[in-house]
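Figure S7 source data.
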Amino acid sequence: MIEMIKASKVYSEDVEALKDISVSIASGEMFFIIGMSGAGKTTLLKLISSMEAPTSGLIEIAGQPVHLLKGYKLARLRQKIGVAYQDFKLLTDRTAAENIAISMEVSYKKPQIIRKRVKDLLAALDLTDKHNKITGELSRGEQQRVTLARAIANSPAMILVDEPTGNLDAETTEKVIKLLTKCNKSGATVVIATHDDLIYRHTPHRIMELQKGSILSVIRGNGL
Ligand SMILES: Nc1ncnc2c1ncn2[C@@H]1O[C@H](COP(=O)(O)OP(=O)(O)OP(=O)(O)O)[C@@H](O)[C@H]1O
Ligand SMILES: [Mg+2]
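Tokens for the predicted adenosine-5'-triphosphate complex:
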């Protein structure tokens, strides 16, 4: 599904955020990217989602070189990718429900289907009472969950999540993991960048550790 071949990202002469990253993530896999602050986790997700272009190397999704796609081909690919950004990027003057509904409205889902999906996602993330609240007035932890709900609402084939639990307590973190696992079990490829060992401690899935832009290790979690 995702193929990175010797991908590098140099932001400026002295900031080499990623160096020669080669990794292959299978369709339907759940995959964790860990590493210290500044290790390159967000940059890697941005290369996959084509928000940033690699300085060198190749990134393919479903056989297509993402950074070379343009126009409708790029738009079509982006529709298949749900991204929960580390800095949320919510429409802060719109309600939680409106933010979550956006990706479904863009793909012309029926209003009653959208309403039900929004309601179910808010319930799964313990946000039922925030349905009509403007997201700019929500706490960071609440905004973070709305961001996640928006990313997965349209059931994309690929879900990229950046620090999904940075502002959450253990109980809410558990709900987020449950929801992402459910998406993965329904067939989505899920890539999660995180500092939070609560998320990957018990995972049976692969974990890649980045250090200063390079791959330190890729191990399979023991699922304990
Ligand atoms: N837009 C940018 N312009 C210049 N440098 C950047 C930019 N984005 C990131 N960097 C630099 O690239 C390196 C990797 O940053 P990145 O955000 O990918 O790390 P991260 O692993 O996601 O960190 P964190 O855990 O703090 O989110 C850092 O040294 C950072 O300062
Ligand atoms: Mg980051």
